[in-house]
Amino acid sequence: MDIITFKNFSWKYSGYRGWTLHDINLSIAKGEFIGIIGKIGSGRTTFCSSMLGLIPHFYPGIMEGEIIIDGVNVEKSSISKLSSIVGLAFQSPSNQLTGAGTTIEEELAFGLQNLGVPYEEMHKRVSEMLKIIGLEKFRKRSPFELSGGQQQKVAIASVLIMNPKILVLDEPTSQLDPLGTEQVFDLVKKLSKKGITIIMSTNNIDYLSKFADRIILFDNEVVKVDTPKKILTDIELLKKHSLTHSVITDVSMKLKKYGLYHKDLIIDFDELKNVIKGMIK
Amino acid sequence: MASIGIISYIERDSYFHKVNPLTKLLILLCVIFMSFAINNFIFILLLLVLIIPIAIKSKVLSMTFNPIFKLYFMFALLFIIQGLFHPYATEKLIDLPFGFILWKDGLLYATYIASRIFVMMVFGYWFVLTTHPGDLVSSLARIGLPHSIGYIILTTLQIIPRIGGQMKTIIDAQRSRGLETEGSLIQRVKSFMPLLGPLFMGSVQQAVEKSMALEARAFSAIGKKTSYRKTEINFADKIIMAGAVIFSITWWWLSWTL
Q: How far apart are CA A38 and CA A219, in angstroms?
């Protein structure tokens, strides 16, 4: 069953000449993990923002076509209504902390307060969420005292606590160090296993290749939608859109070049490991 | 929060920390009322006798009084200006060199102002030190404070140290590009100017992102909001409130009759 549908969707920011996104037609099924890749300015953030209704309700511009999220027409709905279906976390870890609470638990509870969730249930949900993100010990700390990775986890958790069906992550690891990146990806992996539909924009293709069901390549329009293997091993396509392939793919390319390996290019570390093991034997 | 250099809530396990913020706010309002309505500075200063046991019980005695002693310069200036230049002064105290006169009624007027400021500030500090901003906003929301105003109160305290941090980053970035940020006062004022552009632009950008984050958390949702903090007015609060009102009216009446 499709939970997200884009029908002939186009968007132009007011004051800009061209379309940031043009003629997008997409269907995303419930529970899918979708990876979004594309160069800077390819419209990935716009795409992510559109699912929560920030486009067209927050940013001024011209919209064509329609977006249906869990049966709700985004254009006819409001951001606050959509926020109970879609959770959006974006790049900067600290800027998306609302500062509405002086502690992590209050930061997490903020969305629930706005939705009018009763006191007892709110406390229960906050405790559960703290367990999921592994920050129970820090519940009374200020979110601004945390590391970038921990802040990003709080930011993701604070939208997740509102029980959205879809979690949209716009470059959540671009400002994080390797440890923070791993923490965020671990959390996303956990959520994906729980059946939440995940849309993740990132150019960290090593991680995407592991977790994503499908990858969408953007360049102000949908260039290609396919499995991670098909997209991430299409070197020409990636190059054309200013993207690089992963180190794993690169190793398999070199092996192919030197005639040591003859099959399809590899994106998975374990697969590469097995190939090399086989060669050694 | 203590590191931001402005007085803020201090976590303590005391009776007054648990008292409803509205009760404490009413006490503060009563003190403000008494400070202005009472025309006898001895009655005003006697209110300090009240705050000492309250501050001890709240475990914030030194913090309640310390900040105000740092304002000695302001108080000294008040006495000097009023003592020497009070516009309606008639009663001379002493003649000073260079033709200056120290006026008795000027000093008396300064004493009134100083005692009012002192008492209000001490009670104000006690209120801030013992009241968690979240509890205050939550209880004010219960009596009709708009949701958005509550957010502004809460977030302001957290934004100040962040802006300080950003200023430091910008200064460091500009220093590394050769901008002179130290030296004479004029030099420092000059170096402050190029700081404003990036700081302002950065703040605007942050405000946009923050408002998106707020929207993503249903900030503009219509309907009843709830609070993560429980702030209820119990019987003891009602007794304290009634006591504060009765005391302030009685004290005011006594100051006029005695």
A: 6
